[in-house]
Amino acid sequence: MSTETVTISKLGAQGDGIANGPDGPIYIPFGLPGETVAIARVKNHRTIMSITRPSPDRREPLCRHFGPDGVGGACGGCSLQHLGDDAYRSFKRDLVIDALKSKGLAPAVGDLVVAHPGERRRVVFAARKTEKELLLGFNQAESHHIVSISECPIASAAITSRLDAIKAIGKAMATSAEPFRITVLETLSGLDLSVEGIKGLSDQKRRATIETTLGLRGIARVSLNGEILVEPMKPILDFGGVQVSPPPGSFTQATKPAEDIMAELVTSHVGKAKRIADLFAGSGTFSLRLARTGRVHAVEAEDKALKALDHAARNTQGLKPVSIEKRDLFRRPLMASELKVFDAVVFDPPRAGAEFQSQELARSGVKKIVAVSCNPLTLARDLAILVAGGYRVTSVTPIDQFLWSSHVEVVASLEK
Ligand SMILES: C[S@@+](CC[C@H](N)C(=O)[O-])C[C@H]1O[C@@H](n2cnc3c(N)ncnc32)[C@H](O)[C@@H]1O
């Protein structure tokens, strides 16, 4: 182990402090710009030993598990709890501005729509069985070590108040000391637990899981690798007044407030469009809201998500017709000739973005586009393609959905 004293010059895109070293940038987790810190170096990892000059933007973290000296280790769930609100908001907004600038774009970027503690309704926990108990929490950054948590200020009360129940189910299922994942989604009918990473459940373990779940309150469903093991209540989500039962482990926006704001931005830009394509539609977060005013064609690769969307559309009064199409939009984007029938297109791809789809949209005559993204870098690339094709970016709104992480959502509206 070696030690040195450095001054941090800026925050990196992952939320680490960065100091300029003789051999290039030094990344210092939990360090803030302007701070002078003594750091210890073990292999490639730096740990702050003491802060000689703290930043005025530094504040006390809310959670006992946060930071290099967090209880149980440095929980990797959050990276920015130590940063004051104003600096935190600028950091997230700047991630979007800088990504756009890197592609030669400089549209006006709105203020960050802020997130609050207790809003997260979907949390992916790391879990592992030990001789005594089930560890349930988050991996330490860049490590397999699980920091077992007793509190989590970002997660909803429905989740944090049932940590013991989630542990009991994980313990009933665990077959070995191998780590696995439990995605917990708060739904209107209870928690939906999707477990991944456990291979092959014996009949005895299956029975134990079912019995344990049925003996607990507030658990709607438990599934393993997409297969439903027990479902005391059908999990239900509300997409703007339309009730949907999502398939196990399917994509859901991580907070309800962020989902509502994204949906509001999407529907208001689409306006009175009569024919709308919703690409990367999931279980219908946007499609089912858009169908209140226009005919919607929902395109998505996941069969089960599309079926949930279709079922909800067919069983809700007052919606315009919704058609569905299972399609891999990375390999087979909707071609410019297919896009002719639409007045508006919404696309909300995974982190990789929608490069080929953007190329086809750029060649199309679609009047209004809304791009929703969880990755400013791929969004900037896709917007640059659209702008080169004659589109004008009319608004860009950064939205915080992953509080105290370095992730930011963006909704961008375009017109031709
Ligand atoms: C960020 S999610 C958005 C889902 C939905 N718009 C929502 O807000 O709930 C991205 C969606 O793209 C889907 N997807 C991933 N790869 C795809 C592909 N190659 N073609 C079509 N859909 C894909 C995923 O299944 C997921 O539902």
Low-confidence stretches: none
List all distinct small molecules, including ions and cofactors, that are bound in this structure: S-adenosylmethionine
Quick one: CATH class of the largest domain? Alpha Beta
Total of domains:
3
Fraction of residues in H or I helices: 10-25%
| Structural class label | alpha+beta
How does CATH name the architecture of the largest domain? 3-Layer(aba) Sandwich
Largest sheet: 7 strands, mixed
Mean pLDDT: 96
For CATH, the homologous superfamily of the largest domain is named as Vaccinia Virus protein VP39
Determine Rg (CA atoms, Å): 23 Å
**CATH fold call of the largest domain:** Rossmann fold
Q: Please, how many helices?
A: 10
Distance between the termini: 58 Å
Instruction: Report strand order across the widest sheet.
Output: 8-7-6-9-10-11-12
Question: What overall geometry do the principal axes of the alpha carbons give?
Answer: globular
> What's the total number of strands?
21
